[in-house]
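Help needed: design a sequence for this.
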């Protein structure tokens, strides 16, 4: 294993930890706030923090010639959040979280198609075991299976596509640029829907949720460097 690979794995582990905590807090907030309001506020606060950091380090770091890819990635992320948190409102946290484990499985297979990555026997067996674990938790076809979890499955597909674009952008764009445009387009796309269903709700755990999402964004974009 190279140092570069180890660095990516460390960021991936950190990303997984923050993502799990974010889902748990998101489950709580989705019961108090409109989903679109929650998504918009998260993107807006992350955008303001990114703008402040960019102002200190220099705006030349966010210059890009791939604005269309950034827009597509931001759109996929927003749609992923919408479907995930909508499904999370009506399904259990363990079921929703277990479905997100399908993301690395999808990415491993898609990586062989789009990035010519090798899928050796050891990795293949590991992915099959991971898929089996997800099926054991969800128990599709059983009376306890929650049909609303299909919304979460849609979000997994959207986030997998977004991660493919993240890896592609990582060839030419730095992490700050990716975070900036992701939060920018996320704010712009979710703003009209958030305004329609806006509720004046302020809870203390909102602060931790939005800042935890900021850490998740940075870890997500560093894992492919």
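Sure. Designed sequence:
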């Amino acid at each position: 294993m190279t140092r570069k690979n180890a660095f990516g794995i460390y960021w991936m582990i950190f990303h997984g930890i923050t993502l799990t905590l974010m889902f748990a807090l998101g489950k709580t907030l989705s019961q108090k706030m409109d989903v679109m309001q929650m998504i918009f506020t998260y993107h807006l606060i992350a955008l303001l923090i990114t703008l402040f950091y960019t102002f200190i380090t220099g705006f030349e770091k966010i210059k890009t010639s791939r604005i269309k890819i950034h827009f597509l990635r931001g759109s996929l992320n927003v749609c992923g959040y919408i479907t995930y948190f909508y499904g999370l409102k009506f399904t259990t946290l363990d079921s929703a979280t277990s479905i997100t484990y399908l993301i690395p499985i999808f990415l491993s297979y898609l990586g062989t198609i789009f990035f010519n990555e090798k899928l050796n026997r050891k990795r293949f067996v590991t992915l099959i075991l991971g898929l089996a674990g997800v099926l054991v938790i969800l128990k599709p076809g059983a009376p306890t299976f929650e049909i609303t979890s299909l919304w979460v499955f849609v979000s997994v597909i959207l986030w997998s596509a977004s991660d493919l674009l993240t890896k592609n952008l990582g060839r030419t764009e730095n992490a700050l640029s990716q975070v900036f445009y992701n939060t920018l387009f996320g704010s712009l796309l979710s703003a009209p829907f958030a305004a329609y269903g806006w509720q004046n709700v302020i809870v203390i755990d909102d602060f931790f949720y939005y800042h935890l999402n900021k850490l998740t964004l940075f870890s997500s974009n560093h894992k492919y460097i």
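The mean pLDDT is 76.
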